[in-house]
Structures are given as C-alpha cells and as structure tokens.
C-alpha cells in the first residue's frame, strides 16, 4: 500500500472488524472455488488477498485489505448470505469453515506459527523485488502453505475441473489463496471472532454489514 491510498475507516466496533476479517476468509473461499472451476479470478479480490498475506505488520486495521471495504466486496456478499440465511454456494461455505478450523489448529502449533512467520518475512523480500503478484511470489506462498498448513489434521480438498487443477501454476495459486484465507481467519480471531458468535451474534454481524454498505 502506498501513502497516497485513501483510507476508508471501518466502523470501530468489534462486530464490524470481525465482519471484515470474516469477509476476507469467504473471499478466499470464493476465489479458490472460481480458480478450481474456471481457472479465473477477480483481479481486485485476488490482489487484495495476496497483499494482505504479505503485509504482516500493517499500519492500521484498514490497511490490511487496502483501505476500502469494496476490496472485500466478494467476501462481504457471501457473508451477507450466511448471516441472512440466504442460499450460499455450499462449496464456498465448506472452504470458508474449513479455513476457520485450520486456523484454530495452527494457533495451537507455536512451531508452525514461527515457521510461517519466517517464511513470510523471506517472501516479503521476494515481493519487494518482483512485485506482490509475481509468479515467483505466488509459488513461494503456495509452498509455504503446502509445507505447513497442509500437514495439519484438517485437509481442504479442492473440487473443480481436474485438468485446470493440474495446469501450470494452478496448485500454487490455489494454495496461496488458501494461505490468504488463513491470514484473514487469524485476523478474525484476533478481533474476537469465534465460531459460536456466527450463530448467537448474527444480529450484530448483520448490523455491521449494513453499516459497511
């Protein structure tokens, strides 16, 4: 993020911050589904996720997702469906809730957390040299996921077009986006997000989503 990026302040409530972080999780889930089925991503959604993963020491909460909630619009729309009990793509939901489960397993594994932190610091150097979305950076992010999170008990099995999933750079892109989902899942937890709140504090989340527009 550059100094000239306008910051659109998020409502300073726990529910609003949890909603934005959770939107990042569901945006990652949506992008994984799109990649696996069509090989395509939404460029803005994709770049927001990758940049958030690389920015491990953001200057503000809003800076994580690029300063404007519209950068998480895809994820916010999924979350609105979840909160409003509307029909949501079940595959996207499965990926999203699996990311939350995986995050909880990661949180209890200090060695893996440290390993991921070291890897991301190294990848940040790559990103400064090549650019955040260069395929060398994406490959490194994918490798970081594969060698850490994919070894945990919860495994995310991605469904889609087998020929697409085996195409060049596709496994790395999918894993990089799953890692982004974990980044936002950790953020959600840091902001007080818990699985039970999705059931019992649905009203607060809905109000926060309405405020975000």
UniProtKB/TrEMBL annotation:
Membrane topology listed for this record: Peripheral membrane protein
Locations listed in the record: Cytoplasm; Cell membrane
Keywords attached to this entry: Cell membrane, Cytoplasm, Membrane
Organism domain of life: Bacteria
Principal location listed in the UniProt entry: cytoplasm
UniProt-listed NCBIfam families: PRK00218.1-2
Protein family membership: Belongs to the HflD family.
Designated name of the protein: High frequency lysogenization protein HflD homolog
Natural source organism: Halomonas saccharevitans
């Amino acid at each position: 993020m550059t100094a000239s990026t306008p910051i659109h302040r998020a409502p300073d409530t726990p529910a609003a911050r949890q909603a934005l972080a959770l939107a990042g999780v569901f945006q990652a889930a949506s992008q994984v589904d799109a990649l696996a089925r069509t090989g395509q991503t939404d460029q803005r959604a994709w770049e927001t996720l990758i940049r958030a993963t690389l920015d491990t020491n953001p200057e503000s909460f809003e800076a994580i997702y690029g300063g404007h909630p519209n950068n998480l619009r895809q994820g916010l729309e999924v979350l609105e469906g979840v909160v409003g009990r509307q029909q949501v793509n079940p595959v996207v939901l499965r990926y999203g809730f699996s990311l939350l489960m995986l995050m909880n397993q990661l949180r209890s594994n200090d060695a893996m957390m440290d390993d991921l932190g070291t890897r991301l610091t190294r990848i940040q150097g790559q990103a400064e040299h090549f650019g955040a979305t260069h395929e060398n950076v994406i490959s490194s992010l994918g490798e970081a996921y594969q060698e850490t999170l994919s070894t945990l008990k919860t495994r995310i099995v991605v469904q889609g077009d087998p020929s697409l999933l085996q195409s060049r750079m596709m496994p790395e892109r999918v894993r990089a986006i799953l890692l982004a989902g974990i980044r936002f899942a950790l953020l959600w937890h840091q902001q007080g997000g818990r699985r039970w709140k999705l059931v019992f504090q649905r009203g607060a989340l809905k109000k926060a989503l309405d405020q975000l527009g």
